[in-house]
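Box 3.1. Reading complex inputs
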Amino acid sequence: MKAEFEEERQDNRVILYHLIQTGNGPQIIAFLEKLSPAEIARFITRLGQKDQTRLLELIGPEKSAILISKISGLGAAGIVERISTADAVPIVQEMGSDQQVRILRKLKEDDAELILQDIQPNRAKEIRQLMSYPENTAGGLMITEYLPYTSRLKVHDVLEDLREHGEVYSDYDIQYAYVISDTGKLIGVLRLRDLLLAPKSKPIAEVMIKDPLKVDVSASLQVLRDFFRQYTFLGVPVTDNEGNLVGVVRSYTVREAANKRNNQLFLKFAGIVGGEEARTMPLFKRSSRRLSWLSINIVLNIIAASVIALYQDTLEKAIVLAVFLPIISDMSGCSGNQAVAVSIRELTLGLVRPRELMRVLAKESSIGIINGFVLGCLLAAAALLWKGNLYLGLVVGVSLAANTLVAVSFGGLVPLILRSMRTDPALASGPLLTTITDMCGFFLVLSSGSLLLPKLTG
Amino acid sequence: MKAEFEEERQDNRVILYHLIQTGNGPQIIAFLEKLSPAEIARFITRLGQKDQTRLLELIGPEKSAILISKISGLGAAGIVERISTADAVPIVQEMGSDQQVRILRKLKEDDAELILQDIQPNRAKEIRQLMSYPENTAGGLMITEYLPYTSRLKVHDVLEDLREHGEVYSDYDIQYAYVISDTGKLIGVLRLRDLLLAPKSKPIAEVMIKDPLKVDVSASLQVLRDFFRQYTFLGVPVTDNEGNLVGVVRSYTVREAANKRNNQLFLKFAGIVGGEEARTMPLFKRSSRRLSWLSINIVLNIIAASVIALYQDTLEKAIVLAVFLPIISDMSGCSGNQAVAVSIRELTLGLVRPRELMRVLAKESSIGIINGFVLGCLLAAAALLWKGNLYLGLVVGVSLAANTLVAVSFGGLVPLILRSMRTDPALASGPLLTTITDMCGFFLVLSSGSLLLPKLTG
């Protein structure tokens, strides 16, 4: 059964390839509709540039826009990056405003500019406006497709309008309509549900929710996350400094953005600069991004290891210590990274604030003492078993215990300190941490080893 | 301004504490309503057990249920864990079914059982049923509060029912109503929007979407993610083997669950067993969870370092190599972890399948060669600068280059292999990787060092 399944997949790829070669657009559309977004992304992103372009041409701009929206976050931008401006323009034009902004942001500035120049001027102006807001803010996440009605209308008028323009509106994601003043100020929100339940002759001003909740156009992702945690709304109106309605942020956009940020956090934590890498990216791009982080790391590593060089004499006499140096370096790194991760997560959720250093220090140092004690005992026991030398056990055990305390405490604090300095903690915490803990660990083992040298070599 | 802000926060905590001590329920409610969920979580989760219990008593079960739902994912379960069954029952009773299941799952089985025994039997039976589904499946994520109508009704009947029960329903998250057969089979979906736009005398069977999209009760989170990536619906009906409607999964629940899983992935990757830790958890729980991972790691580390012990003679003669061992161990770990993270992410998104080992190997080994070459040159240059010995540079440079290739290739593959074996790659990949790369790295440096020993000591 499983083998069959695999075979069928293999066949699918062959079928798609064949359909592209024979130029059968409608069949490609029918074929792709049977697949899940992850499958589509797997197939499409792995096609060569020529075949990708050909496929999009074959299915036409409208279907292409749907296809690309469907695999948003699964390598969609990479596809637009690879096609020509002439091919991209009609596709981008078919997208919703949020999708347009998301895709254009990903492109090089020149490429985005070329596309914008070819888009209908009014629309292009709107997109430029949206792109001028920082990425993870209400302005950067909002859509401009929403339904505004002036406050003088009645329930009946709005229902009429909805019925008349039903088809156009069904492309929108309508759950609310917004009531504005003659000058464009937001004064109320109409839930479609309430509209449905209200007498038709009522003025909408009496059905609407007055003084509606709204967010400022500059509101951060954290604020928006908190908002949708607090209220189960599907969207929130966005207003500018003057209280004018400028857009709507949908709750699912916020959840997707939070998801994306979490993903980036994870990859950054592992040393992927930019928080994004897919294996469909060009080799050189992937390799150089990883290298930019690694090459800083190797310099820090060399600096840390220079501590060992200072103690060459000790090491020469008690060569057995060399066995324990990598263990202490690695274990301290692990212990410290656990604390780093918990701090990064608490910062992201807003459960700890960057200034609460004392709280984190108290919480982490107590763990550092317990875990340091246990790990120190384990390592001391291993040393004792191996060499039968109590002093060796003492040197490596106490060093690991002390260094675990340092690593866990420092690991908990580093992300807070970096955040206070407005630096991204995910990428920089690890290298900073290991440099300090390596230096400290090597120093502890080798200096205490120097002191007890006669006992170690005896 | 900033100082003022800080002071006000400090004051807030004092105010809340004071309100709890004086037993002023209504003022506590008013006070908490001004705060964001993250702030509430920060205040509440840090209260002592006694004050937490007292606060929940003061605001009453209904407000407590809202409060706990609001800080879902921010330490909510910890609060229910800490109060007595008698206090918990009325609060749990006020929650929606998905929230109930989420909270009860978090409790120890005995505690959950005690609460269930005190809940209204019908409701308890429903909750037990929901809890019997695995956590990240449609059954585990669905709600049972939805609106089913039999197919014989007319638009008018449904609107009438909605209008009559408006208040009850407004507690629900209604966007769709579901049309079922007399035996409970799902036969259609009614969008409220369509209901609004349709003539009142039409039978709902003509307005409904026939053969609606649905998911099986056992559908995985990955399938649900894909579903809501593909369709912009707000919810999807869930059916059992016989096609009966058993619940509804809302898109935001799926996005939240995906978010939670990403977060857990991140923490597991850093060695936090269970993927969850908050600094409000008891010290011993936090410390022992971290230790359980660290103590496996230290054993693996000792095994890896035993390679060094085999080469003590070489090391004694060329002590300078000891300086490079931790560098090679650490850098290989970093390079390998980058590949691990990219694989874990691609697996999670469904962009790579566990069996595609050859694809990942090809993609990663080419990066391993480039990055290995660059890092090897850097380390060789550092060795050369330091000691002026070309052979030393050669030994450490070539070793790091070769070991980077091993680490990157193996790092890319490990998560796929673990996933094929139905093991969680996030927690186990790191330790497995570093054990292999440490052993291999130590062996490369020390064996090549042995071969060139006369040149190193010359």
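In summary: Chain B touches chain A through 118 residues (CB under 8 Å).
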